[in-house]
Structure formats: structure tokens, C-alpha cells
Amino acid sequence: MGRAPETRKQALVKLAWVGIWLVYLGAPVSDLADGGHGVLVTTAAALGLAAFVLAYLALVFLRTNAREKPEQWVYAVLVAQTGLSALLSATLGKSWLVLFVYVAVACGAALPFRESRWAVPAVTAVLAAIGASVDSGGDLYPALIIPALLGGFAMVGVKQLVRTMRELREARETVAQLAATEERLRLARDLHDLLGHSLSLITLKSELAGRMLPDRPDDAAEQVADIEKVSRQALVDVREAVSGYRRPTLTAELAGARTALASAGVTARVHADGPPPGLAPEAEGALAWALREAVTNVVRHSGAATCVVALETAGGLATLTVSDDGRGPGDDLEPGNGLTGLTERLILAGGTLRTDRSGDGGFVLRASVPLDPAPVGAEGGRAGGGRE
């Protein structure tokens, strides 16, 4: 329901459900079969009835699922059906009054509600007027007035139900697309942050090992061993990110930050030991990603000699600050993919991200996330750094 037939089988099934109600045309068919009319009248009436049935099937079959405003031919067909019903009923007798019921149903199926709510009663009124003249006994047309009204408005309800089903199906498809898009964004953010950090560290250690090789092969071998560890861990992280289980911790990222900064020859001043009390796992993960991104950018872009990492809690917020004394940001301070993805992570955790120039002319990043309402009994340092 709510979807146009897409295959021949679906079209035949729908046509069968529409056509089954034609059984109530038995009265006019019996009137023709009784032979009470001349050959010319019978032939003309049979052709008119066939044209009426084809028009009815076309309207109900084609217009029930339609969402656009009806074309002009729809109104023309409905007017023609009404005129044909009036002509056949007035000339052939009360057995043909049942055609008006089908006209009312066609109005409900083919017209929008603001028009069908008037068209159905109008067709019923025409039925009552002609029935009063051709059925002097009054035993037939009252029995058709209620079916005409109920059938017409029932089809209006069916069309409304079809529209609702269509909107629900479209909404479900939209939700599925949004979920897929969000998963792609999550995966892109994770892979960018994971591989950016790991590959930067591998590059640094490879360059360091290359400089050590001629004179200090033992130290070079140690760097190569570190490269192997980093690459293996990167592989594990990527697998976890793809599986959706990756959630870094502040403790691990603080240790990784010290290692990465030391390998790059940057003096690290870390004023934090781990997550403060009251920090939810989602918020801790967002700060851990912020620390990873900030340190990666210090190593790759800043040319800094010193990097300060601090974590403090105040005003119900935990704030991570990473700042360096290297090359500061450009005048436009345009964020790259890393900072854009980091902003999205923090927003999902209810936090914020701010970037600026540090007091030493370098770059500072501040990432803040809310703490749980429970009292927090720890003090941290300050936050900053990152520019990608």
C-alpha cells in the first residue's frame, strides 16, 4: 500500500482488487440480458457500460496512488461518467442507478480531499434526483444513496491511508539514509584521526631510524621495533573503528601523546594523569579524540619546540587544552577535515571546540565536555592545540 505497482504481477493483483467490486453491476447487465430493449438500444447501452467500466478502472487504478494535482482529463472523465450514468438511468430505468455509486467511488479515488468532499455528495444528489423520477416506488434509490456516500468517502479514507503509508515509507527510507550517512561520517572521522596519528608517528620514527642507521644500528633497530608496534596497533584500531567498537581513553592517549611528541623532538609538558571524576565514557572518548588530533597536528604542522597539555574541571565542564609555541594559524583560521570531524564528535557529546593563537604565537585548542551531575572532586590543568 502506498506504492505504485512495479511489476506486472503487482499490477494484476491491484487490478483484481479493483475489479472485484464490479460484481454489483449485475443489475444493469441483467437488464440488458433480459431483452426488454431493442437491438440498437441494447448495443448502445452495452457500449456505454463498457466505456463506463474502463473509465472507472482507469481512474481507480491510476489515481489512487497519485500525489500530484489531477490532470484535466481526470475531471473530463468524471463529468463524462456522471453524464453517462444520468443518461442510461433516465432512459433505461432504475437498474442503472447503481452506476452513480461507482462515480462516487471514482471521485473519492481520483480527486484530492478538498474536491472529493464536495464531489461525492454532489454525485449522490444527482442520484437522488434521477432516482426520484425513474423509481416511482422509491424502494431502490434510497438503498443506493447510503452506499454512494459511504463508498465515496471510504475511498477518500483509503486514499488518505495510502498517502500516509507513502509518507511513512519515505520517512523510513530517509531515516535509513541518515543512519548510513552518519555511519560513514563516523568511520571517516575515526580513520582520519587514527591513521593521521599513526602514520605521522611511523614517518617520524622512520626518519629517525634512517639517521641512526650508519652510526647507531642498535638505536635504529629500536626505532624499527617501535614502528612495528605502532603499525600493529594502527591495524587493530582500524579494525575496531570499522566494527564500531573504537573508543579511545584519555589515559592511553596521554601516554601516546608523550611518545609522539618525544619522537618529534617536541618538549611535552603534560598536566594531566587521566580522566577526572564524573566524566562519562562518551565525553572521555571525545576528549581523547581531541587530544589525539591536537598532538598529531602539533607533530605534523607546528614546528614547535614545546607543547603543553592540560586538563581542568570547572563549572561542570572538563576542558582539555593543547597549546604549542610553533607556527600559528593563518589569518582565516579555516578548519580542516580533522577539526571539522572533531567538532562533530564534541557536539554529539554535548561539548564545544575552540581554536586560537597561543600566547607564544603558536596554536591552541580547547575542547570542553560536560561532566555528570555528580560532584567532581578533582582539579586539572588547562586545555589546547590542533590545526588540521
Quick structural summary:
With 388 residues, the chain is α+β, with helices and mostly antiparallel strands.
| Number of spatially distinct domains | 2
Q: How would you describe the oligomerization state of the chains in this entry?
A: single chain
Q: Into which percent range does the helicity of residues fall?
A: 55-70%
Number of strands: 5
Cα shape? rod-shaped
The succession of helices and strands, N to C, reads HHHHHHHHHEHEEHEE
What is the CA-CA span between the terminal residues?
Answer: 50 Å
For the sheet with most strands, the description reads: 5 strands, mixed
- Average pLDDT for all residues: 80
Could you give the order of strands across the largest sheet? 1-2-3-5-4
Supply Rg. 38 Å
Q: Top keywords for this entry?
A:
single chain; 388 residues; 2 domains; five-stranded mixed β-sheet; disordered C terminus; Sig_transdc_His_kin_sub3_dim/P; transmembrane helix; transferase; HATPase_C_sf; two-component regulatory system
Provide structural commentary.
It contains 11 helices and 5 strands, in the order αααααααααβαββαββ. The chain has 388 residues and is of the alpha+beta class. A 5-stranded mixed sheet has the order 1-2-3-5-4, covered by helices on one side. Helix 5 packs antiparallel against helix 6, helix 7 (141-212) crosses helix 11 and helix 9 (250-263) runs parallel beside helix 10. The longest helix is centred in the middle third of the chain and has 72 residues, at 141-212. The two termini are 50 Å apart. Mean pLDDT is 80; it is low at 375-388.
